[in-house]
Amino acid sequence: MTAMALNDLLPAERISRSESSNPLGNSGDWIAQPRTENEIADLLRHADEKGWKVTVTGGGSKRGYGGLRERYDMMLSLADLRGVVEHRRGDMTVTVRAGTPIRELADHLAEHGQRLPCDPRWPGTATIGGVVAANETGPRRLAFGAPRDFVLGLRVICPDGRILRTGGKVVKNVAGYDMNKLFVGSMGTLGVMSEITVKLRPLPPDQCLMYLTFPEGSEADIEPFLRLLRSSTLEPFALEVLNPVLAEKTAGVNRYTLAVAFEDRSEAVDDQVKWVRDHLPEGIGMEMRRGEEALRCWEAWAELGPRGPEVPDTDSPAAAAKIGLRSTETVSFIREATEKASDRGLEVFAHGGAGHGIARIWLRGTREAVLPYLAELRSVVEERRGFLVADHLPFEWRKRLDVWGNRTIPFGLMKRIKDSCDPNRTLNDQRFVGGI
Amino acid sequence: MFGRKKRRLDPLIRQLMEWVGETNVLYRREDLVAYECDGFTLKKGEARAVVFPADTREVAAVVRLLHRENVPFIARGAGTGLSGGATPLGGEVIISLVKMKKLLRVDLDNRIAVVQPGFVNLKLTQSIADRGYYYAPDPSSQYACTIGGNVAENAGGAHCLKYGVTTNHILGAEVVLPDGEVIRIGDEGIPDMPGYDLLGLLTGSEGTLGIVTEITVRILKAPQGKQTLLAYFDDVEEASRAVSDIISAGILPAALEMMDRTAIEAVESANFPVGHPLDIEALLLVEVDGIEAGLKSQVEDITELCRRRNVREVKTARDEKEAAAWWANRKTGFGAMGAISPDYLVQDGVIPRSTLPEVLGKIREISRDTGLRIANIFHAGDGNLHPLILFDERKPGEKERALEAGSRCLKVCAEVGGTITGEHGVGIEKREEMRFVFTKEEIAAQIRLRDVFNPGNLLNPGKGFPQPGRCAEVKQEIKERRMAEG
Ligand SMILES: Cc1cc2nc3c(=O)[nH]c(=O)nc-3n(C[C@H](O)[C@H](O)[C@H](O)COP(=O)(O)OP(=O)(O)OC[C@H]3O[C@@H](n4cnc5c(N)ncnc54)[C@H](O)[C@@H]3O)c2cc1C
């Protein structure tokens, strides 16, 4: 691949050669920063014809997430493809370019009393395109749902340069197949999203975040309390179990902690807070953040954990995983993850949604310590028919631990989907499950 | 005589009987009549046979047989579909799932339920209501339609504004692929299983990608409180603006429904009248739910917003009984057209909410042009219109005019940036109208996806997409328009 060829497609200042390698892999020999959809189409078409391999990136926060190639021929960065295309306020929908950072979009929407129903990690870095491609969610998934629930339509550039629209711009649509679902969560392996239309929600009139801390020895009270809460008519926005080291960071108490959030009109928030107070077992600590303060907590929360662009410390780099379980197994999993780590002399940060079943852990350590730990946790989780995806690992480690796990999934069908959309395996080759 | 008849039997029928039992195969002409269409009655076709498998194994065996024999087949639930999805075009074997109607498992603490595809939508809520739970997607046909059919159509309902449509509530499925292979997706209802979102692709695929034989759904806790309001307007435009005002004010009602004057005349003449005034131009039926303490001020805000739009009267249901009566009146709205017209055709376009006044005006024009009355009962909060085109099939040319009026309504929806179907699907009915919203290339991309799941196109062939070679001019026009739009 030559600069000459790229120079015909993009102005020189938006192409750069990149020699340096990154311990997270997923690098590109050339970095191209297109500004328009047509530029992306030209680049992809060219790459597809020449047999080049292309990786796609937004803010780079997920650089350590999957991928068995250290380098691609080209890294297509969407960082310059940003901004709101159309915000239909009265319709509560927005169309936005894929490279727009989540925070930039959130700030724009907040001016109009609206928000994206999504609280992903690192909103300053992560772009809407990356969040959608990874179907990324945060603790408030319990009320928000996931990108697969709020994406209404996409503009997608296929590896051969065709530009397709999927879905539409209205909140209900069953015309044809729900082609959005091909791209949401597919880690950029089927097409490059250039514009994304999403369904918005109003900003809440009021909100609160309660930290309920369970003193040592009373951990067994967590589960019954959760059961009571889950069977009540309360409408929590988040119901996260935190292990002690994470609780120390967020709530300032080194104990197993439940983070319970409510968002509603003030009267309704008060009412739910009261319920929690009335039903809390004896001896449980309670701290409450209300309004702006709650918001700050969520902002800090989103910055926890390792992120892609930081060049990892090579002796004991960071590793992270996303775990899916039945909600009722979250507490026992968080405890098990914590105990198994300490057995191995590791310190793990862990939290899990006791209402949606998605948990996250992260830690630092040597490869010899961390990989067996993750493998052990994975076998625990898979036995319960859940999954563990290692969503942040140095490149070398990914060759030793299958990031995606061992669950049997209908892989044949997935492979045929990849073959049909990207027959030359041009896009994000080997980035996804089963080497897709 | 029985023996003689059997000898003359189509060998395929005999093989089907071997798999599902003699009594579970219909093949006589007179028995097939009931299966010649679904809720969209303007197109009919004859199936080759109807089979009623008892379990997944039987479905898979039947599919493998049909696949081997190269015989086309269709899955069918309750047959309430409104776009002809379950209607045979001629010669298909219909695989009816109505005997697979068990509720397999309920796990309240994890809020999931596992059902067979023939399980009727409303029965799920009825089975868990005593413990305070429900299943959110509530199509008006919920007393009859099956959850398998809901998955295939990605069914919606009045309460989808706040709670989302079927696809947002499906967590797992067992699927028989068109070659008979059985796959499981999203075991145990755990979300985000690694890999492509096959479940999302199957939901809303109108029974063309696979036959769903088991479904894991999310169930919800019934809300603590609920308030139902009725607002009567003398002007359709004011009512439409009130809809936008409510949404823009940051209120997210559980449901926000509208009926126009013709629709009100129909529901008041049918089986569930509630005494709506007949001289108003539009009514809004609004429901807010959630934490009891937060509802009062929402009701006040909605009332005030309606007042600002010159509402004639707003009232809140006194009790659950009254609210239920209002809902029964609304949910039987389509059928109520029978009280004022011999036949009707339901359309299903979606528009950005803010274009409601403009679009309703255009629908009135279409009504004038075609000389057919059009009633509107619809999910206003979602912008999901249901123009009901009233006609008399016995009058020559009326059926054709009704179809034309329907298509024109969809064109208007597409032109304001909306879509041709929000919940009823494309089926046979809207195949050509797909071109209103998608380019040839976009349609081709969808067909390529179909080929991945259903390479021989034996499963529900001829549905969902424009037929090759038809409407060449329309094709060209739309293509040019799209190109111009970039
Ligand atoms: C009076 C009335 C009101 C209605 N109101 C609404 C409404 O408010 N919202 C709404 O969304 N719809 C509504 N509908 C439409 C219809 O009820 C829905 O589309 C429903 O989901 C169809 O379910 P069914 O079991 O009747 O499916 P069928 O009509 O039998 O089949 C529909 C489609 O699904 C496929 N299919 C059925 N079962 C399976 C399966 N197990 N696996 C794969 N494919 C399958 C069929 O091949 C067909 O393409 C209404 C219909 C009527 C008659």
Automatic annotation (TrEMBL), chain A:
GO terms assigned for molecular function: FAD binding; oxidoreductase activity
InterPro entries registered for this protein in UniProt: FAD-bd_PCMH, FAD-bd_PCMH-like_sf, FAD-bd_PCMH_sub2, FAD-linked_Oxase-like_C, Oxid_FAD_bind_N
Domain FAD-binding PCMH-type per the UniProt entry, residue ranges: 23-203
Annotated keywords: FAD, Flavoprotein, Oxidoreductase
Gene3D superfamilies (alphabetical): 3.30.465.10
UniProt xrefs under PROSITE patterns: FAD_PCMH
Name of protein: Glycolate oxidase FAD binding subunit
Organism of this sequence: Melghirimyces profundicolus
Automatic annotation (TrEMBL), chain B:
Swiss-Prot/TrEMBL keywords: FAD, Flavoprotein, Oxidoreductase
SUPFAM superfamilies according to UniProt: FAD-binding/transporter-associated domain-like, FAD-linked oxidases, C-terminal domain
Coiled-coil regions, chain positions: none
Pfam families, per database record: FAD-oxidase_C, FAD_binding_4
Listed cofactors: FAD
Gene Ontology MF, one: oxidoreductase activity
Domain spans labelled FAD-binding PCMH-type: 43-222
Protein name per UniProt: Glycolate oxidase
